[in-house]
């Protein structure tokens, strides 16, 4: 499956970052990566190739402008996470990961931004859409708020978007639907509300994690397309029945959590029987509890 396309795009330093993140565990398991990969030395410092200053290519010059704009959009940084975000060598900035561009391997570009657990507050600036080589954005466990800029539609290589545990709000950010390379979406623990567009479920994502928001409406009546490994919808305000077609996903889903989903009047039993190969009645009880 296409989960490995990132490795084709970006052969190198981003991979350890991916494996380090808690959020990637589902994909990592699927790809057979070792979950015990030692990430310590990758997170604090950068790869050896970045120790010498990177030549100021147009891409890195633009990244400088974007990242300084983001620094300005940060309202508080109690842990001084951004304290080394000074000067043109953006590849040495904490939380910024450079890699050879997929289209020119002698060209260093900004391929990942990882602010996991940095306690930053503020917003995501429109300028972020200019970092068109980004494959990974991890903002897990910060205090970011506001809405996602529509300029993110320029991020044609974006593979993982983790906004979990922030204060993002507003309707489902439909710009996400326009990201052609996206495989992993984690919006859990934010303040998004309103319906989730049906296209999200047929877009070929590996993981769709939406729990603990205030999404409403029901899932689309027909699901098809590429199967996600994980769909997690718990603790929202979804209503209605599970679509019968979700059984199409049954054999490939590793993780499907619908707790607090309102199942009244639905044929849940039929779904679970299909999913579990007829034999797992104890789980029926669990799920309908
Ligand atoms: C690749 O990038 C290098 C460094 O910027 C540049 O000198 C070279 O012309 C580029 N090659 C192509 C094919 O664009
Ligand atoms: C996040 O940071 C806090 C302190 O800032 C720390 O106590 C906690 O262990 C960190 N969590 C992770 C998952 O790194
Ligand atoms: C969730 O949305 C519903 C309907 O719009 C609203 O009544 C409710 O207050 C919201 N809950 C939270 C926690 O925002």
TrEMBL record:
Leucine-rich repeat-containing N-terminal plant-type domain location: 66-98
Keywords, ordered alphabetically: Cell wall, Cell wall biogenesis/degradation, Glycoprotein, Hydroxylation, Leucine-rich repeat, Membrane, Repeat, Secreted, Signal, Transmembrane, Transmembrane helix
Domain of life: Eukaryota
Alphabetical list of SUPFAM superfamilies matching this protein: L domain-like
Transmembrane segments: 6-28
Keyword Cell wall biogenesis/degradation among record annotations: yes
Localization of this protein: Secreted, Cell wall
Any GO BP annotation: cell wall organization
Record-given protein name: Cell wall hydroxyproline-rich glycoprotein
Organism listed in the record: Rubroshorea leprosula
Lineage: Eukaryota, Viridiplantae, Streptophyta, Embryophyta, Tracheophyta
């Amino acid at each position: 499956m296409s989960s490995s396309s990132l490795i084709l795009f970006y052969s190198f330093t981003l991979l350890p970052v991916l494996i380090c993140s808690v959020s990637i565990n589902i994909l990592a398991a699927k790809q057979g990566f070792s979950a015990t990969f030692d990430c310590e030395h990758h997170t604090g410092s950068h790869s050896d190739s970045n120790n010498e200053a990177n030549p100021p290519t147009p891409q890195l010059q633009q990244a400088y402008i974007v990242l300084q704009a983001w620094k300005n959009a940060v309202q508080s940084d109690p842990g001084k996470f951004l304290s080394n975000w000074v000067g043109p060598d953006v590849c040495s900035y904490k939380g910024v990961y450079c890699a050879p561009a997929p289209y020119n391997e002698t060209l260093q570009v900004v391929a990942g931004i990882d602010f996991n657990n940095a306690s930053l507050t503020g917003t995501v600036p429109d300028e972020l859409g200019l970092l068109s080589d980004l494959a990974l954005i991890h903002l897990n466990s910060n205090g970011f708020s506001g809405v996602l800029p529509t300029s993110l539609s320029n991020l044609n290589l974006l593979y993982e978007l983790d906004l979990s545990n922030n204060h993002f709000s507003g309707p489902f950010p439909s710009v996400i639907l326009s990201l052609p390379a996206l495989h992993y979406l984690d919006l859990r623990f934010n303040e998004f509300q309103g319906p989730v567009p049906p296209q999200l479920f047929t877009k070929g994502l590996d993981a769709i994690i939406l729990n603990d928001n205030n999404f409403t409406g029901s899932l689309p009546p027909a699901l098809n397309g590429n199967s996600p490994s994980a769909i997690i919808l718990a603790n929202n305000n979804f209503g209605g029945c599970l679509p019968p077609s979700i059984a199409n996903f049954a054999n490939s889903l590793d993780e499907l959590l619908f707790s607090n989903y309102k199942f009244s009047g639905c044929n849940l039993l039929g779904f679970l029987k299909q999913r579990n190969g007829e034999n797992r009645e104890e789980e029926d009880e669990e799920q309908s509890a």
